[in-house]
């Protein structure tokens, strides 16, 4: 089991930027990524990155705006979010697990979530 702690959420205006961080402890991270859940909606995949950092997956709505990266020395993954839109408002969850062919990540561990709110 791995423990995941997110940080970096907050309130930002449309077009603004935020950087989320997820620090892991307990074991080395393999596939890792971010999901989000907006009010009244199901949790959805956002982005993932493999162990080497060379393979990333992103859901279509964030391509060109969000960038996932990782620092294996710090066991930390980041999500740089630019050009934020009100539709990006959600609780963002860090997740860790093993590789899967569709999203690059099948989670077995979750963080507690961090709120991102984008005002119009």
**Average pLDDT across residues?**
94
Q: C-alpha Rg, in Å? A: 13 Å
Derived structural class: mainly beta
Distance between the termini: 39 Å
- Residues in helices, as a percent range: under 10%
**What is the number of strand segments?**
11
Largest sheet: 7 strands, mixed
Low-pLDDT residue intervals, each spanning 5 or more residues: none
| Proportion of residues in β-strands | over 45%
What is the count of helical runs? 0
Q: Secondary-structure element order, as H and E?
A: EEEEEEEEEEE
- Outline, from the CA principal axes? globular
Please describe what this structure looks like.
It is a single chain. The chain is mainly β and 120 residues long. The mean pLDDT is 94. A hairpin with a 6-residue loop joins β4 (31-37) and β5. It is globular, with a radius of gyration of 13 Å. 34% of the residues are buried. The protein has strands spanning 3-7, 10-13, 18-25, 31-37, 44-49, 56-58, 66-71, 76-81, 90-98, 106-110, 114-119.
Sequence-ordered SSE layout with sheet pairings:
Layout: E1 3-7, E2 10-13, E3 18-25, E4 31-37, E5 44-49, E6 56-58, E7 66-71, E8 76-81, E9 90-98, E10 106-110, E11 114-119
Parallel strand pairs: 2-11
Antiparallel strand pairs: 1-3, 3-8, 4-5, 4-9, 5-6, 7-8, 9-10, 9-11
Give me some keywords for this one.
single chain; mainly beta; 7-stranded mixed sheet; 4-stranded antiparallel sheet
Task: Give a short overview.
It is built from no helices and 11 strands.
């Amino acid at each position: 089991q791995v423990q995941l702690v997110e940080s970096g959420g907050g309130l930002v205006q449309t077009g603004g930027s935020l950087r989320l961080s997820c620090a892991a402890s307990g074991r080395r991270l393999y596939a890792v990524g971010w999901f989000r859940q907006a009010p009244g909606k199901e949790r959805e995949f956002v982005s993932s990155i493999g162990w080497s950092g060379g393979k990333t997956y992103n859901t279509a709505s964030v391509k060109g705006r969000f960038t996932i990266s990782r620092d294996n020395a710090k066991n930390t993954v980041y999500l740089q979010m630019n050009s934020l839109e009100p539709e990006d408002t959600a609780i963002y969850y860090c997740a860790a697990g093993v590789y899967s062919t569709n999203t690059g990540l099948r989670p077995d561990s979750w963080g507690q979530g961090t709120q991102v709110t984008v005002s119009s």
